[in-house]
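Ops channel
N.P.: pipeline sanity check, posting one input/output pair.
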């Protein structure tokens, strides 16, 4: 087995900056939305989604329930995405830090649009464009993997 030393370029700072933005987006912007909806509706944690009995007991109308569920889904969907995206992002960033950071910033922007565009707005449809940046980051990670493996000579 051949080991590979990885030099972290100074441009990797862009990756870290985008990572901080991802963290703040998830743990401030999206969590605060859920907290605000919980306050407005009376839906208490740990409930992710209110049961019919809870909706009835709190006397919530359809709009209130939909607003809460929308905020909760934005938060949950982002957590689901980031749980596997962040490691790939950090690894791909070692190979092409500037390009991957730009793709990551694009994802933050589109995810922000997804999280804050009105539920039925056409703007929300554009948020799906983050997938192109996501696929680019995955592509870069694949190229990086191939470059590492191709330098690995079997004895």
């Amino acid at each position: 087995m051949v080991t590979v030393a990885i030099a972290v370029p100074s441009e990797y700072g862009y990756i870290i900056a985008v990572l901080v933005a991802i963290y703040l987006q998830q743990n401030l912007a999206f969590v605060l939305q859920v907290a605000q909806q919980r306050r407005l509706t009376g839906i208490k944690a740990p409930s992710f989604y209110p049961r019919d009995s809870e909706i009835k007991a709190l006397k919530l109308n359809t709009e209130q329930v939909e607003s809460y569920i929308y905020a909760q889904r934005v938060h949950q969907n982002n957590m689901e995405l980031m749980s596997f995206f962040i490691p790939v992002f950090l690894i791909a960033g070692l190979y092409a830090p500037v390009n991957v950071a730009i793709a990551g910033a694009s994802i933050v922007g589109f995810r922000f649009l997804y999280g804050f565009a009105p539920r039925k707005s056409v703007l929300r449809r554009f948020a799906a464009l983050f997938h192109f940046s996501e696929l680019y980051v995955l592509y870069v990670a694949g190229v990086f993997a191939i470059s590492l493996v191709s330098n690995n000579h079997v004895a």
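N.P.: looks fine end to end. Residues 12-148 form a domain with the Four Helix Bundle (Hemerythrin (Met), subunit A) fold (CATH 1.20.120.550).
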